[in-house]
Each structure stands twice: as C-alpha cells, then as structure tokens.
Design brief:
The protein has 188 residues and is an all-alpha fold. The protein has helices at residues 25-51, 53-65, 72-89, 99-117, 136-150, 157-163, 166-178, and strands at 124-125, 132-133. Strands 1-2 form a two-stranded antiparallel sheet. α1 packs across α3 and α1 (25-51) runs parallel beside α5. The radius of gyration is 18 Å and the shape is globular.
C-alpha cells in the first residue's frame, strides 16, 4: 500500500518497500525538495533536446523516429514537441529562454545538488551506521546526470554548466562503482 507522509513523500513503493524508509521525517522533506529540483533539471533537459533546433534536428528527431515508420514518424514528433513546449511554457518565462538563462538555471540546480552532496557518497547517510543510504533521490539524480553527461548533442551548454561542478561527475562515478554500473560512453 502506498502511504503518503506529511511531506507528500510516498512512504512505500508498489512492492511495499521504499529506498528511503530509513530516513527520518526531516530527511524525507529534504528529499522532496531536491526531487522538485530534479523536476527543474528534467524540464531543462527536455528544452535542450526538443526546443533547441540543432539538437532536435540532428539527434532528437532521428532517435525518436528511428523505431517508427511513416506516417507515425512524421506525426509523433510533432505531438511530442508540442507537449514539451507546453511543459516548458508552464515553467514561466522558459519559452523565451536564452542560452545564458539556460546556463544560469542549470548552474543553480548544479550548485544546490553539489552543496547538498558535500563530500558524501550519496545524498543521505544512515544515522546509526554513518553509511551511505541510496534513496529514490539518488536514483533520479544519477539517471538525469548520466543522461546529460552521456548524450552527445551539437549544442549542449547544459552539460558544460553541470561539468563545471566536478563533484557531480564524481558522484556519478561513485554510484557506478558502488553499484556495479558501467557508463556506456565516455564522459566528455
């Protein structure tokens, strides 16, 4: 059963287990705040992939349509791009975002994540043992950062902005080594 806590964090997953069950209420609230921050990063990723024309034309469109035949290969990208535009437009002034604004927004997210991580391996530690606790937040952050660092786009200022925070690259490498993951492509 899924039980919602005061912070809005879902206490248990579908199988009755939560990665964050060892966290106290304050830590779960912190996790919710950083999860919302990752939603900003996700919107920036979508903007970069779908609404920056070079990226869309040379990478996103071919990748998105490679598994479909005509006419779906002509129709689906139109609807997906419109969906992304609506999401981005709902974020405020993002529909008119400049490269500088994209960099600034990305740097803000990166700074907040870097500050929260500090020199820890994961975002939270077990209060009793002091060992790293992998939570849903770690999964989200690793997934988004790995996608950003590994994707080769013609115009990817976002990657450069995040790469300025070497702690985030170290975090991805730590997660990969600790959990037996291997990056498929070299980070550049």
């Amino acid at each position: 059963a899924v039980v919602s806590t005061q912070s809005g964090h879902s206490g248990r997953g579908k199988r009755g287990y939560s990665l964050s069950e060892k966290l106290n209420q304050n830590e779960k609230c912190d996790m919710d705040i950083y999860t919302a921050l990752i939603k900003r990063l996700e919107a920036l990723e979508l903007f970069t992939s779908w609404l920056i024309e070079d990226n869309y034309t040379h990478v996103t469109l071919p990748a998105y349509t490679s598994h479909t035949t005509w006419p779906l290969s002509a129709i689906l990208p139109f609807y997906k791009k419109r969906q992304v535009y609506r999401l981005v437009a709902s974020q405020g002034q993002w529909h008119d975002i400049s490269s500088e604004m994209l960099m600034a927004e990305t740097k803000d997210v990166a700074s907040a994540l870097t500050e929260r991580l500090g020199d820890q391996g994961t975002f939270f530690k077990d209060g009793d043992t002091g060992q790293d606790v992998v939570t849903e937040l770690d999964c989200l952050v690793y997934g988004h950062l790995n996608a950003i660092f590994m994707t080769k786009l013609p115009s990817y200022r976002m990657k450069r902005a995040l790469g300025l925070h070497s702690r985030l690259i170290d975090y991805c490498k730590y997660v990969e080594s600790k959990h037996g993951l291997r990056a498929q492509r070299e980070r550049s």
